[in-house]
Amino acid sequence: MGNNDDWYKGSRRVFIFPRLGVVIKIARFYPLVGLWRFLYSVQDKQFLYFLKLPVDILGSYWNVWIKGLRDNWMEFADYLLYRNPFTQPCYFSLFGLINVQKIGRMVTEEEGEKWDLWGQFFDLTDRECYYYDNHHFVNPANFCLENGKLRIVDYGSPATRQVVKKWGVILHEKVRVDI
Ligand SMILES: Nc1ncnc2c1ncn2[C@@H]1O[C@H](COP(=O)(O)OP(=O)(O)OP(=O)(O)O)[C@@H](O)[C@H]1O
Ligand SMILES: [Mg+2]
């Protein structure tokens, strides 16, 4: 079963509270899908192979079991530890189950194209966003604006954190959103 199937609704459910200035991100779990994958892997004698597949690999059981939880927790820990200016502040996490993040003014698809965000990311990171995390950086729905500067709202995966850790300050300073 791939993650493009109808049942897949993302790794987290996001509720927006404009008056409070926050969003709440609730981890999603797909226990039955994970269980079927697990049972098929046992039947196909691929159990060990699947067991070792990382959380971010579509089709792994960890992906449907814990990705939302892991993403939530890592966004919280990462923001707490590094306070990278490119990351949208995460205020609180209940063990990754529920996160509270500052609300952002999201970038639209049209703006992403108009500002050539992907092209800017590509150049400013010396192509590393392309090598490590192209799916994520190519999607404007992962970014917001704060005082005329770009920030990322979805930064829980290891690949994203790797790019953000190395290039976040530069991206925050140099990405142009006024062109
Ligand atoms: N801080 C925020 N402020 C406003 N809207 C937000 C914020 N964080 C997330 N959203 C909204 O929720 C959507 C999904 O958020 P996010 O990408 O963080 O979650 P996700 O579970 O990783 O989703 P996906 O798997 O679709 O990438 C965003 O595209 C955006 O529309
Ligand atoms: Mg996202």
Description:
With 179 residues, this protein is an alpha+beta fold. The chain has two domains: 1-103, no CATH class; 105-179, no CATH class. 45% of the residues lie in helices and 18% in strands. It contains seven helices and seven strands, in the order ββαααβββαααββα. It has helices at 31-43, 47-51, 61-82, 109-114, 117-124, 128-137, 158-174, and strands at residues 12-17, 22-27, 90-94, 98-102, 105-106, 143-146, 149-152. The protein has a four-stranded antiparallel β-sheet with strand order 1-2-4-3, covered by helices on one side. A three-stranded antiparallel β-sheet has the order 5-6-7. Strand 3 and strand 4 (98-102) form a beta hairpin. Helix 1 (31-43) packs across helix 3 (61-82), helix 5 (117-124) packs antiparallel against helix 6 and helix 6 (128-137) crosses helix 7 (158-174). The termini are far apart. The model has no long low-confidence stretch (mean pLDDT 95). The structure holds adenosine-5'-triphosphate and magnesium ion (MG). Adenosine-5'-triphosphate binds next to strand 1 and strand 4. Residues 141-142, 154 line the site of magnesium ion (MG).
Can you describe this structure in just a few lines?
This protein folds into two domains: 1-103, no CATH class; 105-179, no CATH class. Helices cover 45% and strands 18% of the residues.
Oligomer: single chain
Strand fraction band? 15-25%
Number of DSSP helical runs:
7
Q: Cα distance, first to last residue?
A: 42 Å
What's the structural blueprint in terms of helices and strands?
Layout: E1 12-17, E2 22-27, H1 31-43, H2 47-51, H3 61-82, E3 90-94, E4 98-102, E5 105-106, H4 109-114, H5 117-124, H6 128-137, E6 143-146, E7 149-152, H7 158-174
Antiparallel strand pairs: 1-2, 2-4, 3-4, 5-6, 6-7
Helix pairs in contact: 1-3, 5-6, 6-7
The structure holds adenosine-5'-triphosphate and magnesium ion.
